[in-house]
Specification:
With about 450 residues, this protein is α/β, with parallel strands linked by helices. The protein has helices spanning about 20-30, 65-70, 75-90, 100-115, 130-145, 160-165, 200-215, 240-250, 305, 320-335, 340-360, 390-400, 425-445, and strands at about 45-50, 50-55, 60, 120-125, 145-150, 185, 220-225, 255-260, 285, 295-300, 365-370, 375-380, 405, 405-410, 415-420. A hairpin with a 4-residue loop joins strand 2 and strand 3. The chain is globular. The chain starts with 18 loop residues before the first helix and ends in a 5-residue tail after the last helix. The structure holds pyridoxal-5'-phosphate. Pyridoxal-5'-phosphate (PLP) binds next to helix 5.
Amino acid sequence: MEPSLIKQHRSLVTELPGPRSRELERRRSAAVAGGVSSTFPVYVAEASGAVLVDVDGNSLIDLGSGIAVVSVGHAAPRVVDAVSDQVERFSHTCFMVTPYEGYVAVCEALNERTPGDHDKRTALFNSGAEAVENAVKVARHVTGRQAVVVFDHAYHGRTNLTMALTAKNMPYRDKFGPFAPEVYRVPMSYPLRDPEGMTGEQAAGRAIEEIERLVGADNVACVLIEPIQGEGGFVVPAPGFLPTVAAWSRQAGALFVADEIQTGFCRTGRWFACEHESVVPDLITTAKALAGGMPLAAVTGRAELMDGVHPGGLGGTYGGNPVACAAALASIRTMEEEGLVEAAARIEEVVGSCLRSLQRDHPGIGDVRGRGAMMAMELVRPGTLEPDAEATRRIVGACHRSGVVVLSCGSYGNVIRLLPPLVIDEALLAEGLEVLSGAVSEALSDGSD
Ligand SMILES: Cc1ncc(COP(=O)(O)O)c(C=O)c1O
């Protein structure tokens, strides 16, 4: 592949956001709905690999990948070629009217790559939320049941049903109700905040007891879970939690649905996060990294379930758009040919060791967790579990002003998460982490820590 044309370095020529970004921000406020926010209003002119170049000529290190989307890097050469080629041939027919090979090839790739060697089928959509909605449609249709079980801290999207499935009120749900009915929330395994010594199996027992109390096992259409929670704070359940919940679901005749929209496609050091505990979901939702930046999402599942819905019951005008499918095939090829599963595991070592060393110095870092290139630290008031959202904001702000894009998350807004493109250079990652370490030391060494 051609080397990227944008130098993989950090270089600041103005303060951030610079004057052109600030000017665009003024235009934006007169044109763009206020409900759409941006974490870091630096306007991007171009990007490649792990570097964003803004309209003022600053080069920023991207440790967020557009929220786990550009795992293959910005403007990944195979994706750029495939998209350009496809868009010249045709950009849309609507698969529901006249089909094309790319859609079929993406479904084949997903059937082959997702956990389990059973017969599978896939349907394609535009966004993660749409995939989750469709997984629930399939689950309800084939089980003839209505209840959907979700977990504390879950995030599944912003449409009406997925708002109901999402846990956090502000900003996702506040005053947007009424929400879709037949959604039941139960406790997640959250090792930092669970009673000390609680095992994954015990946490699963707690959740199952609650399901049986709230809804009754034989009313559950599906149990929907992120194997590592994303927006909810990169919560990695204790070992044993996922397999126990999956086994209970099967026994109860409910579908076990893994939402791997954020964790999927090499991000956690496996193709899918369920593989860490050999869990095979009945249905799996994917999006984000699937298509290297083009909007595409999927539901993949057991053939008898996915084929259990009548023709025309699933679909949409743009679902499985041919340009997005070409991008997906190129992304998947990039992941295979560039060994991005292994790259994510290497990133875990580097980022994990940096975050753990910061934790040793700063009691305000209550936890370091994650898998692969999906790592986070949770900030607390020293000696307590009280969330420190203020320190989180200060650290994120300082990183941004220094040209390093990091993101926060968590039900309490006190988790800093790192999601670098899996193709990031070692030196660039080290520089990004150095900036983060400086920001942490400054924020947590002011006498309060
Ligand atoms: C686990 C998970 N599910 C669903 C979604 C919703 O995806 P989208 O924003 O593409 O609708 C997200 C987005 O962050 C996610 O992380």
